[in-house]
Amino acid sequence: MSYIFNDKNALESFIIEKRKELEALLLSEASIDIEKLEEIKVVGGIHLVDNAYNLILMIVNNKEQEVINFAKKEGVAWAKTSLTLSFKLEWVKAIRKAFWSFLYEYEQAHNMKRITENSYEMVIKINKLIDEFFQGFFISYSDYKDELLEKERKLVENLSVPIIPISNNISILPLIGTIDTYRAGIIEEKVLVEIGKNHVGKLLLDLSGIAEMDKEAIHHFLKLLDGVSMMGCQTIITGLRPDIVREIVAFDVSFGNKVRTTGNLQQALELFSNKDNDERIFV
């Protein structure tokens, strides 16, 4: 392994010996008080000063792979908290400034006069490792946040299509909010899968909670009804609003015998609760 400093052992010992001073300098550069430091430690489980100290020792020993691995670990840890990237950026700047200040103090204490070329090479290596840390941290942070958002999106998708069984072969799908093209596609996919998976014979679509449905969404909705019918499932729709009805009429289509409509959910449930009616609903 090549080292950044010719006498890295002496510098490492100097940093270990003056750790408390280094920690104080870090907090001063970042303008963080002890209370804030403890809050981050308790709430986020992140030991800011300890981690900065360990990072500096990795840099002194030119442990590039350890720096990269540490950055990935830190990125995930920060992504799990409410700590912002801007705060992390300020903290990395504080680490960089504190490290250079400490290096200057070390050189003064040892009456060191570095050759310009060597100094330039050392600056490049130190900055490279710090930059690699921040780059690795940012990528890891972003990847974790993206995965979290994807999981939340899938959860919302599942919750937005709540197909509820009310008997062995009858299910109800109450929809609320706005249905755009994207959500309509999700509804279409999940409903057809659910019908096939659970052998749903009759589906009650409650649209009374729908605030808005654009034209493309209505087109998807009509395709859904065709698909449900093709799978041998009968549909009752309730809660159609006048504006949505007008949009459906504008498509110049008819539900025909594929769909039965009722004015409200109670009427639809009454149709299903009566066995004789249940047999004649779609006749």
Automatic annotation (TrEMBL):
Matches recorded under Gene3D superfamilies: STAS domain
Domain (STAS): residue spans on this chain: 160-272
InterPro entries: Bact_StressResp_Reg, STAS_dom, STAS_dom_sf
Keywords: Phosphoprotein
Domain of life, per lineage: Bacteria
Protein name according to UniProt: Stressosome protein RsbRD
The species this protein was found in: Oceanobacillus picturae
Gene coding for it: rsbRD
